[in-house]
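#struct-pred

JT: dropping the chains for the assembly here, can someone run the whole complex?
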Amino acid sequence: MEPSSHDIENAGLSTAPPSVSGDRRASADPVAPGYQHWPPLRTARLVIVPLNIAWPSHVAALNDREHMRWSEQRRLVHSKETQRGYIASANEYFVLLDLQRAESLVTSVGSMSCVIDRDNRVVNMGIMVIPGECNKGYGKEAWTAVMNYWLTGGGMVRVEAGMMADNFAMRDLCSSTGMEYDGTKLSYFQINDNSRQDMVMFGKVR
Ligand SMILES: CC(C)(COP(=O)(O)OP(=O)(O)OC[C@H]1O[C@@H](n2cnc3c(N)ncnc32)[C@H](O)[C@@H]1OP(=O)(O)O)[C@@H](O)C(=O)NCCC(=O)NCCS
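RK: done, full complex below.
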């Protein structure tokens, strides 16, 4: 059963700090907004908010081996419980976002993840659009909005993404949203026991 708007409003976020090996000096901590203050981003068709809901449609997409063939999620079996755990692991350094349709608060076309290096002001982004919603421009719409947010109000200087060399949908998405090819990490991914694949990097600097 899909969650109600009441569930959405009452879902909590983890704000647990990441483990660090020393106390951070206040002066060494650059200004970047906390996850708690994520502003709902509105695009033509989406509202992008912190991911609070273990959507059945997301779990089904994550268990779709063909759809996840370019993602590390391909190695895992997902359930509502594992998805809840994933959601609970979010904090101000690991932001998870829900790509909800603007016309309805209770449907989602996918999710995004942002790993934040606050000291260097760099964000590494990932995205998953559920199979039935692919090739409709949602990925590009969400990616553009989140990338622009980080590089403007979000206080970051660089946004980047890495992907398997043969993930042409993702490569197209990055290049068509203004990112530039940054280079290739050779033989980065273990595909199966005897096959490896390169990682292609894209980035955009403010
Ligand atoms: C990659 C992904 C997010 C793209 O989302 P999407 O909503 O389908 O993308 P869009 O419809 O916004 O299209 C964005 C661009 O990619 C292109 N594209 C989309 N699917 C494509 C495909 N299968 N092959 C080649 N190009 C493709 C579009 O033509 C468009 O390029 P353009 O603007 O130059 O025309 C989606 O396919 C997905 O979730 N894949 C599985 C998860 C994944 O691989 N995530 C990335 C892991 S690094």
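JT: nice. Residues 67, 70-71, 126-129, 134-140, 163, 167-170, 172-173, 176 surround coenzyme A (CB under 6 Å). The chain has a mean pLDDT of 85.
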